[in-house]
Design goal:
225 residues; 2 domains; two-stranded antiparallel ribbon; 6 helices
Length: 225
């Protein structure tokens, strides 16, 4: 089953489910047999070596799943980015002003160890192959954890990974700066070797205009729009 968000309060034409609730839904439930038919001819998936390099530990993912699930998803995201871009250009023409660049941010959420990072890396690779070859970066929410020394000072070391262990103001400021058109935005990173936040720019993800990213939180990517 694939669940797809819609842009209106109603259900998508792809919706094959019946709902016991009379409330409008923001999502469409699509059977995989229907979803895989949405593939775009000529839009390639991944090769075997690429898949191995992108997979996480204990993340079962096949080339067939990439082709049937992720390739149509990447195409749907491309349509959203193209529509947003056209709206921005039309608005700029209406106001008789420049068309300002605004990054397109996509968030990926889920429980621990469900494959968010693998999903982010696969989408990053597929999106980078769009016709206009956008720059795509992945940003993880682990970078927004408090450093270990701060967690110790706050008595939160045993709560690492829980909401209170994150500097929740930082991702808000990060996204505001990114969407607000700041010339360069630096995303903090986390080292699984040191088990701590990297507090300098070594390995940091730097997003510069007119590039952009995605937010896949707890693991995040972005294509420019």
């Amino acid at each position: 089953m694939v669940r797809v968000g819609t842009t209106s309060g109603g259900q998508s034409d792809l919706d094959t489910s019946t709902s016991s609730s009379s409330l409008p839904s923001q999502f469409a439930r699509v059977e995989r047999s229907t979803w895989r038919q949405l593939q775009v001819p000529g839009l390639a998936g991944l090769g075997p070596d690429e898949l191995v390099a992108l997979q996480g530990v204990n993340d079962p993912l096949s080339l067939n799943e990439v082709q049937e699930v992720y390739v149509p998803l990447a195409r749907l995201l491309e349509l959203h980015v193209m529509a947003r871009r056209e709206l921005r250009h039309a608005t700029a023409a209406f106001r008789v002003g420049p068309s300002e660049y605004v990054p397109y941010v996509v968030g990926i959420a889920g429980s621990v160890a469900v494959g968010k990072s693998t999903t982010a890396r696969v989408l990053q690779r597929l999106i980078a192959r769009w016709r206009d070859r956008p720059t795509v970066e992945v940003v993880t929410t682990d970078g927004f954890l408090y450093p270990n020394r701060e967690l110790v000072a706050r008595g939160l070391m045993n709560r690492k990974g829980f909401p209170e262990s994150y500097d929740r103001r930082r991702p808000i400021l990060f996204l505001a700066s990114l969407k607000g058109g700041q010339e360069e935005v630096v995303a903090p990173t986390y080292s699984h070797l040191a088990y701590d936040v990297v507090e300098d720019r070594r390995g940091a993800v730097c997003l510069s205009r007119p590039q952009a990213g995605w937010s896949l939180g707890p693991t995040w990517p972005w294509p420019g729009s």
